Amino acid sequence: MSYKELINELLLKGKEKMEDMEAFLISNKNIEIEVFKGELDKYSISESGGLSLRGVTNGKMGYSYTEKLDESSIDMLIEEAYENGKYIDATDVDEIFHGSEKYAELNLYNKILADTSMSDKINFALNIEKEALTLDKRVVAVQSCGYEEFEQERMIVNTKSVSLSDKSNGAIAYVSVVVQDGEDTKTGMAFRVFTDLSTVDYKEIAKEAVNEAISMLGAVSIKSGNYPTILKNNIFADILEAFSSVFSADNAQKDISILKGKIGEEIANPILTIVDNPLYENGFASRTFDDEGTSSRNKKIIDKGVLKSLLHTWKTANKESIESTGNGFRASYKSTLSISPSNFYVENGDMSFEDMVSTIDHGVYIISVAGLHSGLNPVSGDFSLSAHGYEILDGKLYRPVHQITIAGNLYELFKSIEIIGNDLEFGLPGNGYFGSPSIKVKYLSIAGE
∠ CA 360-363-369 to the nearest 5 degrees? Predict the structure, then answer.
């Protein structure tokens, strides 16, 4: 019995007990490769997946799920969803979505990546490590070096004629190095996200990590104060990711997002535009439909400084008599529906990084932060993060700085943006895929000496 046949039988039999139902099937395959000292240190291929059922009876939604994808699971899924729905005490009405009129077409699966031999993938990781160790005599170790690959299939079928499926894949290569000069030790890291191994140069990855580490040798602290600051593209992207919950309509409706009631207000410098684009080409959170079957669309969350929308599922959208933004998300077949961004990024500006640096007489360029999940408050927007980077003097990068802390508030940061660069980059994919160009702000509070 195929997955589609299994789901059809499940929905047909479930009609005896429930008014509307939705079956959600997800299948994942992951490859992890790690190398150490010229040898394969870890090699694993894992597969996971399962089937969940959402069913409505008397306006209450029940859930059930299983890893066993055969006919023997049908009765259990129906009975558990039916029984669980009886005990739902929420006043919010849950509905099964009837489907969108039109869905975009995207090719999210690169067969070239899937067909690339495992030996090529292992050798690629080995080559990164070897290259990193030979680039400079001050490189004393490679902390971690590896290759990860994922493949995912989704299927959503419901009793309101929705029948959708997709397949996606992608990979990540990374390296972290340690350099030493006398008693001074520093680290550097680099990664690439891709769908075709032949488009990636292992030498570039190794060189980027080594150069970053070496450039931090001799780093000093800096006097505490308020400094004009440039946040490296991936750092601003990481900050956006850490604060992404504030853009959830569910959190706003629960009074745990400061953005509640601010639609239509100017919350940032007019040069800032942030989009959530699930149709972004080669985006690792790209998809033509969300996890409740809503058609994906590109939308501006902040448009020229004005908050235009929060992220919605149909449950949150119905409370405000608007349409879902297509941001329904399930972390796995076991998870209930939540809200998550897709490809969420700051639109490029028009200034190069070099020109941006040249606008600062005395400031700081931040290239790394730590404590993103403990040093910030997503409700208030306050953050305090340990960081390192470079002091800027007379429009040029002057010297490396470390043992500093940057502190501020997300919403004040939005308003203090002065320049947006043209170097949009994305970070590592997680629950969403966050990107940004380099950003110059009027000042940040820097605690150092």
Answer: 130
